[in-house]
Amino acid sequence: MSAQKVCGVEELSPATARRVVLDGVAIAVVRDSAGEVHAIGDTCTHGDISLSEGFVEDDGLECWAHGSKFSFATGKPLNLPAYEPVPVFAVEIIDGDVYIDPAVRLAV
User: Fold this and answer.
1) Residue 107: is its pLDDT beyond 90?
2) Where are the membrane-spanning stretches (predicted)?
């Protein structure tokens, strides 16, 4: 597989997340408040909830239903009730566009 274009960086508002599905893999694409773009698995490991509907907070994405926050860097939950991590995917920015390869995981 290879990296696929998911959106333009400017299409991602700061401190927001967007759900994309690449090759059957649900991914939350996030632009944090500093402007960095991250990609983590979109499904909370505590329940079948889309993380992209949650809240971007500093270094992670918080599930709106259960309150578990997942690290952008490691995918690990930073608090309970979740205890299993979500995958973290490599992000490439090319000419202002965001590319993700769902087969390339940085964690999990």
Assistant:
1) no
2) none
